[in-house]
Amino acid sequence: MHDSVIKPTTLDEAWQQGLQQGLTQVALNILREGIDIAQVAKLTGLPIERIVSLQNNDLDDQTLVKDFLELSESLLNKIWLDPQEDEAWKNL
Description:
Layout: H1 8-32, H2 37-44, H3 48-57, H4 61-79, H5 83-90
């Protein structure tokens, strides 16, 4: 393994991005139930502009999963193992 330690800022960034992904999914679910935009913003804490964007685009679950996987991969690349260790994990 690397001798370095995962930086707290990287963990915080990952946590924040995961939280935003979760809130986005919750907002979509609430919108699909017919709740108005102002209420969705109040319940999730997301900006109204983001809620409107979600409503207009009505992102499907596959898009959210794809975005999450890309985000996860990008964050793991910052903190993951060296190439030899990475190869070893692929065989598990």
